[in-house]
Design goal:
Radius of gyration: 19 Å
Structural class: alpha/beta
Distance between the termini: 52 Å
Helix content: 40-55%
Number of strands: 10
Largest sheet: 8 strands, parallel, barrel
Number of helices: 10
Mean pLDDT: 91
Length: about 325
């Protein structure tokens, strides 16, 4: 199911307007305000409007995204407990809207050992799940680029978390193509995609993959930089995306585009992915030397932005 993150400005049901205009098969939304800890109670009319718009959408799938404020790996106990409370709020909000999957970043560990932070993430997830026992909403942990001290950059970390969750059926994984590549998994081309999926199967189990974020990477393999760009304009090429959207095993999963230039670029990405899915011709990526000029242009663009931020002497 090919889709995009969409805006809900003006009401949580407004995302379905963009879904219709762009021909989306799935949408990703923030269920609650994404930049504040305060979450107002949702009124019955808002819930009704959302459910009605969803019903009229013709079967568009919906996934939620937990705000970046939530950090279950934080060494700050106050922030940790606020994060658990907010996750519980997200689950309850998703439940009243009948959204079955919410995507969450595993968090960051600050200056302490990763293993210690992972144990705390497990504690937080177990508490949130225990406090929402009657919910059927699942938490999908997103693969991360490994920037700074973020968790979730390896499949082994996800395996460790899922093995220690009391109700493991409610935990899944969302694979972000940009993040996988930036963290060091060479997912490029059909061969790279196949190898990485095989590794996921061995370490974690393919049944744990519940969603994809289809994003190209603005930086090279193993850069640990979380910078998305338009599909086909970065380091990943086109071939891997065709392999993903043509996979019968993955076709039932939400595949969400997170183009940084959403309003202008996401529709083009959706159109491209649909064309790749329907094409009988297998796309082959150009040789690395043919991609050099484009990738140099992207990196120079970053350098220019950096120079513009420098104070004048």
């Amino acid at each position: 199911m090919i889709g995009s993150n969409v805006s809900t400005v003006g009401g949580i049901d407004k995302g379905f307007i963009q879904a219709k205009e762009w021909g989306l098969e799935c949408i990703q939304i923030y269920i609650t305000p994404s930049r504040t800890w305060t979450v107002p109670k949702r009124d019955a009319k808002s819930i009704h409007n959302f459910l009605q718009a969803w019903q009229e959408s013709g079967g568009v799938a919906v996934v939620g995204h937990v705000p970046f404020l939530v950090n279950l790996g934080s060494p700050n106990p106050v922030l940790f407990h606020k994060s658990v409370d907010r996750l519980v709020c997200e689950i309850n909000s998703a439940e009243e809207l009948r959204i079955r999957n919410i995507i969450m970043h595993p968090g960051a560990c600050g200056g302490r050992p990763i293993e210690q932070a992972l144990d705390q993430v497990i504690v937080g997830l177990n508490e949130a799940i225990s406090r929402t026992k009657c919910s059927s909403t699942n938490i999908l942990l997103e693969t991360m680029a490994g920037q700074g001290r973020t968790l979730g950059a390896t499949f082994e970390q996800f395996a460790y978390i899922t093995e220690h969750i009391e109700d493991g059926e409610r935990i899944g994984v969302c694979c972000d193509t940009c993040h996988l590549y930036a963290s060091g998994y060479d997912i490029r081309g059909r061969t790279g995609f196949s190898k990485v999926m095989h590794e996921i199967g061995n370490v974690l189990g393919m049944t744990k993959i519940k969603a994809f974020h289809l994003n190209d990477s603005k930086h090279p393999l193993g850069s640990h930089k979380d910078k998305h760009c338009t599909i086909g304009k970065g380091f990943l090429g086109i071939e891997v995306f065709q392999a993903i959207v043509q996979s019968e095993a993955l076709s039932v999963l939400p595949m969400v585009i997170e183009n940084p230039d959403r309003d202008c670029g996401s529709y083009n990405d959706v159109t491209l992915l649909k064309e790749l899915r329907e094409s009988r011709d297998r796309v082959k990526d150009p040789e690395p030397t043919e991609r050099t000029s484009l990738q140099t242009e992207l990196l120079l663009d970053d350098a220019c932005r950096f120079r513009r931020r420098l104070p004048r002497s």
